[in-house]
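Q: I'm writing a short methods note and want an example of a predicted protein-small molecule complex. Could you take the sequence and the SMILES for coenzyme A and return the bound structure as tokens? Please keep the output block clean; save any remarks for afterwards.
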Amino acid sequence: MVIIDTGQAQIDDFYDCFSELMSEGYGHFSPGLRQHFLTVDYPKKNFQFWLERSVRKILLAKEGSETLGFLVGDYAYGGVGFVSWLGIRNKYRGKGFGTELYNEYEKFIKTKNAHLIELFTFAEVKPFYEKLGFKEIGIREEGYFGQKNVIMDKKIGEWVDLNLLVKK
Ligand SMILES: CC(C)(COP(=O)(O)OP(=O)(O)OC[C@H]1O[C@@H](n2cnc3c(N)ncnc32)[C@H](O)[C@@H]1OP(=O)(O)O)[C@@H](O)C(=O)NCCC(=O)NCCS
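A: Understood, no commentary inside the block.
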């Protein structure tokens, strides 16, 4: 398995996998919400825009021409990185690929002087993130899009005011 820092050239591979996960991996989303994500908030052109502007990093796990999964993580703001989407195709789960993608994002975001990584997840997936060192900091019973958000974060460094002066 190799992890690719996705550019415009690999956007189709990423988006095929993202669309598959949207219908299969995030099963608790209603059909209407999935449709909304694919057509309004997260169509392919939005990811192309975010890549172009370095707003979001897209990491792809590949084995030859096969795409195994992806991680979409935001660039740091105020020293805080954010894992927006993480998905491994059903048949490749439980083989360590999700962990490897996360580790790669953590490595990347440290180069941007992040001291913290935040994410929202679901109760069933919480144990996975706990294994990666995340702690639950709270639960929103009816959060974004009416979902129950388990809010977690992981401290990965110290906040240093002087880093504000360093252009990254
Ligand atoms: C959650 C997900 C990304 C994990 O990726 P993965 O490659 O299957 O996970 P890994 O193989 O790296 O697992 C690492 C550890 O976490 C555990 N783990 C993985 N998924 C888990 C889950 N849903 N619940 C509990 N433990 C889990 C594994 O058993 C493994 O434990 P071990 O180290 O003791 O063997 C993947 O299962 C997935 O894509 N699920 C569907 C989409 C989803 O829920 N994404 C997250 C939304 S926030």
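A: Remarks, as requested: The CA atoms of residues 2 and 32 lie 34 Å apart. Helices lie at 11-24, 31-41, 44-52, 97-110, 126-131.
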